[in-house]
Design a protein that fits this description.
Blueprint lengths: L2 H11 L19 H9 L20 H8 L5 H10 L6 H11 L24 H12 L3
Length: 140
């Protein structure tokens, strides 16, 4: 069944008086695509304003432009915002969040902290060593 026959059948099923368009070739369907795009391209350009004239031009102040583009320091506002909320997160939760945000590569891992070694000292005093010598070797 062709598309034209289907269209005619649908037109017959429509109630009278609700017809949208006159029967005939639909726009854009018939003909080559190149012709349609050429028609669109040929549309007359809108008259552009002549940029060579001075009429209607507003003179911009260099000082105003400088102040517009000048960076603004938001430090004070940001500090007030940060200090406003005094809710401090639990240390375990903070560590967990930081661990989740860290990458899996070794360069993203923080350096492991080496445990401080306590200086090895003896529990025995010099007096204990002398006492041991006397008992073991019998030296007075």
């Amino acid at each position: 069944m062709s598309a034209a026959l289907v269209r005619r059948g649908l037109e017959l099923l429509e109630p009278p008086g609700q017809r949208k368009a006159a029967p005939g070739p639909q726009r854009g369907r018939d003909g080559s695509r190149a012709a349609g795009t050429a028609r669109r391209r040929r549309r007359a350009p809108e008259p552009a304003r002549n940029k060579a004239t001075v009429k209607g031009r507003v003179v911009k102040s260099a000082i105003e432009e400088y102040h517009k583009k000048k960076p603004v320091n938001h430090l004070r506002e940001n500090l007030q915002y940060m200090l406003k909320g005094r809710l401090v997160a639990d240390q375990a939760i903070t560590e967990q969040v930081l661990a989740q945000n860290r990458g899996r590569k070794s360069k993203d891992q923080p350096p492991e902290k080496a445990e401080k070694k306590k200086p090895e000292g003896t529990v025995f005093t010099e007096e204990d060593f002398r006492k041991f010598e006397r008992e073991y070797f019998g030296i007075p």
